[in-house]
Amino acid sequence: MIFGKAKILRSHGWQYIPDLYSVTLTEEFRGFPLLTETDDKQDLERAAKICPTKAITTEPLTLDMGRCLFCGECQKCAPRNIKFTNEHRLAATRREDLIVEAGQTAPKFDTSVVRPEIAKYFGKALQLREVSAGGDASIEMELGATGNVNFDFGRYGVGFTASPRHADGLVLTGPISANMAEALDICYNSIAEPKILVVCGSEAVSGGLYADSPAVDRKFLDKYHVDLWLPGAPTHPLCFIEGITKLRAKKK
Amino acid sequence: MKLYYITNNTASAVKIADIPVVDYTELYNDLAERMTNSRYHVAHYFATEHEMGLKFYLIILDDECGEVLISSFIPDYYTRGLASLTALHAQFHPFEREMYELYGIPFNNHPWLKPLRFSHDRRNRESTMDSYPFYQMEGDELHEVNVGPIHAGIIEPGAFRFICSGEQVLHLEIALGYQHRGVEGEIIRDDNKLRQTLIAESIAGDTAVGHATAYAELVEKLGEERIDEELKLERMIALELERIAMHIADTGALATDIGFQLYQVACEALRTVTINTTQAWCGNRFGKSMIRPFGTNHPLTQAKVDTIIKNITDVRRRYNELREDILQDNTLLARFEQCGLVPTEEMQRIGGVGMAARSSNLKRDIRATHPSGYYATELKHEPVLKSHCDVMSRLATRLDEVLQSADYVLNTLKGYKPTEKLRAPQYDAKLQADALSFSLIEGWRGEICHVALTDNEGRITKYKVKDPSVHNWLGLAIAVRSEGISDFPINNKSFNLSYCGHDL
Ligand code: SF4
Fold this sequence. Notes:
- The complex is a heterodimer of chains A (about 250) and B (about 500).
- Chain A has helices spanning about 1-10, 40-50, 75, 115-120, 140-145, 180-190, 200-205, 220-225, 235-245; strands at about 35, 55-60, 60-65, 80-85, 100, 125-130, 160, 170-175, 195-200, 230.
- Chain A contains nine helices and ten strands.
- By secondary structure, chain A is of the alpha/beta class.
- Chain A has a domain at about 110-245: Rossmann fold.
- Chain A is globular.
- The radius of gyration of chain B is 22 Å and the shape is globular.
- Chain B has two domains: about 5-115, Beta Polymerase, domain 2 (2-Layer Sandwich), CATH 3.30.460.80; about 185-504, Cytochrome-c3 Hydrogenase, chain B.
- Chain B contains 17 helices and 14 strands.
- The mean pLDDT of chain B is about 95.
- Chain B has helices spanning about 25-35, 95-105, 185, 195-205, 210-220, 230-255, 260-280, 300-325, 330-335, 345-350, 355-360, 365-370, 375, 390-415, 470-480, 490-495, 500-504, and strands spanning about 5, 15, 20, 40-50, 55-60, 70-75, 80-85, 105-110, 140-145, 160-165, 170-175, 435-440, 445-455, 460-465.
- Iron/sulfur cluster (SF4) binds near residues 55, 56, 63 and 68 of chain A.
- Iron/sulfur cluster (SF4) binds near residues 51, 56 and 69 of chain A.
């Protein structure tokens, strides 16, 4: 028995990623999109039409990562206009910064709107309460993965906690199903101040495919200040890690 | 009178006019008898608006000869309710509850006619999540434990109410609906089939490949084109990779719940290798964007085939080391064996499906009983069955299925020379008019069944989804009866059912 375990351990080896901030994902991964205007708009119009979440505008050309599910179909329709890179660091502090414009070369992370108390109180340790309100389980699993043996975000004092009373903030996933809206509100209000609110995944950011569904109730987001917006379907663990790290970094 | 239209899972869609519209009493009498035989179980049963009020469709599977039986009926306008089939066969319970919730149809003598998911379009708006009619028991020695809707972890919401005598669970009732997003309404909002595919992927994000394949096969049965054999093969690979990843995740989750860190971290690492392989193939760790109707945007290339072979060979070897050790670990076995029993007859009675059913020695596996795609043509699948019906059986099924799926992937890809020229997806294919199409896919949890109806222009006007969890949640409630309440977590993990797949 003990030999069996030794064998497992030997095969397991070292799994943690030493530097979480310099990882480059596979070429296939669809992250930050590069947009290019062209004189003719036919391709682009087809792309905008087929986009399932209406994330693309053609005049001027923009792509809203907060709506985008990174299905890649628009790139097939309009390869001259839209090209997804494998850049996974997509976090933004303002909702409108998720809207990518033609010619933009990198995601925008505006530190000027980050509240100074975040670094002060949560710079060393940050415990979060996750609430899924219609999340499809892939995003919940990715958040779970941030603490696993590969990413081990816990090494920087960031983790998830069971009780909102122990939490410093809330991470919301899912388009906010109406049946979950009240529980979400109660949970958020059970967290003591100061606290942060992180909206994780394109479904949570914009409602995604369910933005117009009568079964969804998004009033929660009108009521409270959001500190971090994270796109993705689901958000990649490294996107979450990068966003949280920047949010709690001391301003230079 | 003919009661059923008989077809199978590889035939094309059925003309609605060909489905007999029968007398409910006759159908009821037939099912009363028929469903006592374990070769049959209900795959779907739903109602839809019709000029005469409501029209009901019923789909029964015959596991022995692979037939699919479809029937329909239109109750008389003055009908004051239907005799409940659940009263005779518990497996009908979620379907009758859903129809009662949506349309107010009473099912007479239904023993448990409670709300199913509190859909936004339910008939009775007074019935809300907060007023769920939990079962109650009186007694000085009893107490209730309420868990949820928010759980102590990064998982989806649902409410569990235990009635306990001391530490012992007498009864568990599971109230769901918190995750209801209106999937079935949104999918038919317009005719954009890319959007429909993405909704299918989001039905249960941990089964993105399974549900997207169910959508794709359903639509393809309504179309005219033949599907390339190569595409079928690549879809099989995607489905088995999803199964491998999730079974490994659950092996790790079970280890976590008994504080076994070695197995936990080993599984985390192995799952990462598996889903990163999927990501290297299609760009998404959960296989979103992989499956599209009539074609694919991600045909396998030789380089990708080599990556899959290399990674899955490694995963298989390492997982097998783990498996061998698990099967000898006395402390783990002491915890998992004889815990959370769902005997075979009980599993059959409630209509259990998938790996949970196979762990109770009930042979429910669409890949073997109603195969489609590559499973129907090339792969002769033999289901893994376990006879102890406990948590350990549910783990042991996974232990064997990971190896089995890995072998399917490796044996199929060895010597496979992809042409890399698979057709692109089609989102504007003309679909058959006035038809009913269904698909059956064995996702990693079990039987996924989608059903659609088209109008006279071939537009989908009704879409019904069934995740295997709809059948199996009751299995979890039964498993924990008479167990200590502290054994709930391992039982829950041993089923790992979907909330969003149930709530839609
Ligand atoms: S990748 Fe994003 S923007 Fe493009 S079609 Fe898909 S959802 Fe729309």
